[in-house]
Specification:
about 40% helix, three-stranded antiparallel sheet, alpha/beta, eight-stranded mixed sheet, about 15% strand, about 375 residues, TIM Barrel, Enolase-like, domain 1
Length: about 375
């Protein structure tokens, strides 16, 4: 079997960003899909994928790990300013290769990865892309909608106005405490039985992170995600040791080398590799294995479309140190129908599919309705 074509599909999802899907065709009539959304530069990732087309045509797609190594070695893909874009491109192709390999052998991807440890994968609802009203009441209402839909864990991102590098520290702290107010309203809306996760989007320096951490201790947060820039490993470790919160992070890292520094230094309590950026299914499995050596749990980052979600489901099903998988809640009303069979989330869980490959296909009619260009 040989790869014959690589096709790209860009879909208009919401004002916060588009979804990009990759489809690999083969001479056996089998195709595989992957997702390359949220690289930070859609135009550049589309260009990178177009360039990869020539390298992939003629390759055997049933050897995803071999091709992964070849793709990484071919261009220093995990270094430099374009690293995230290159890693996103490789990650999408890797997902599609595993999809083809499973279909070729008539088995689900999880079986190729060694077997599933769970039949259902627990999700938490990321509210960010579905929260149009950014007032405290808007955050509370978005969380309540997710709880009504059956989720027992929700994540808010209330600090996006904060710019800690600003000279006006009074204004910066005021913006941070406005975020705390949003969290207080959210906690009151969902009650004490629902887990509340908080993503700080790397908005703080250490002093401000510690102040906000102290103010949010009464809210009983499940975790306090990425309070400081992800490349400031020692600062992140300091907050992990002294804030009183469970610290999560790693969504913007790619490759085992970057994750290993987090693991070795215990920079976070919970590691968050993203199947779209960390290196695809292949590398996420390796990262999880490294984390397991330090008894560090994995909660895959995944606030994008249904294809990367399902790739994350297969990874989550097979790793022993899995906890929760992220799910972009409320972004678009037609999300579940973009794939066949339609995405089904019940009581905050997705069933691990038994169909070959990833167990899904793109819905051509819905794709045509929302495709860009």
């Amino acid at each position: 079997m040989k790869v014959t074509e690589l096709t790209l599909h860009e879909v208009e999802a919401s004002p916060r960003g588009n979804w990009i899907f990759v489809q690999l065709q083969t001479d056996a009539g089998i195709s595989g899909i992957g997702e390359a959304s949220q690289s930070g530069n859609d135009a550049l990732v589309l260009s990178a994928l177009s360039l990869m087309r020539e390298r992939l045509v003629g390759c055997d797609p049933t050897q995803p790990e071999v091709l992964w190594e070849r793709m990484v070695r071919s261009g220093g893909i995990f270094s430099g300013d374009a690293g995230r874009v290159g890693a996103t491109a490789i990650s999408a192709v890797d997902q599609a290769l595993w999809d083809i390999a499973g279909k070729a052998l008539d088995v689900p991807v999880w079986r190729l990865l060694g077997g599933k440890r769970r039949d259902r994968v627990c999700l938490y609802a990321n509210l960010n892309r579905g929260t149009r009203d950014r007032s405290p009441q808007g955050f509370a209402d978005a969380a309540a909608r997710a709880v009504d839909a059956g989720f027992s864990a929700v994540k808010a991102t209330p600090f996006d106005e904060v710019r800690w590098r600003s000279m006006d520290r009074t204004g910066v702290e005021s913006d941070a405490y406005r975020g705390v107010e949003r969290l207080e309203w959210t906690r009151r809306a969902i009650g004490d039985r629902v887990e509340l996760l908080v993503d700080c989007h790397q908005r703080f320096d250490v002093p401000l992170a510690m102040k906000v951490a102290q103010k949010t201790l009464p809210l009983n947060l499940y975790w306090f995600e990425e309070p400081v820039p992800s490349d400031q490993v020692e600062a992140l470790r300091h907050v992990s040791l002294h804030s009183g919160h469970t610290i999560a992070g790693g969504e913007s890292l790619f490759g085992r080398e970057q994750f290993w520094e987090y693991i070795e230094k215990s920079a976070v309590h919970v590691l968050m590799p993203d199947v779209k950026h960390a290196g695809g299914i292949t590398e996420c499995r390796r990262i999880a294995a490294l984390a397991e050596t330090k008894q560090m749990p994995i909660a895959p980052h995944s606030p994008a479309g249904p294809v990367s979600t399902m790739a994350g489901v297969h990874v989550a099903a097979t790793i022993s140190n899995f906890t929760l998988l992220e799910y972009a809640f409320g972004e678009v009303s037609w999300r579940e129908d973009l794939i066949c069979p339609a995405e089904v989330v019940e009581q905050g869980h997705i069933a691990v599919p038994d169909a070959p490959g990833l167990g899904i296909e793109l819905n051509d009619a819905m794709l045509a309705s929302h495709r860009i260009g």
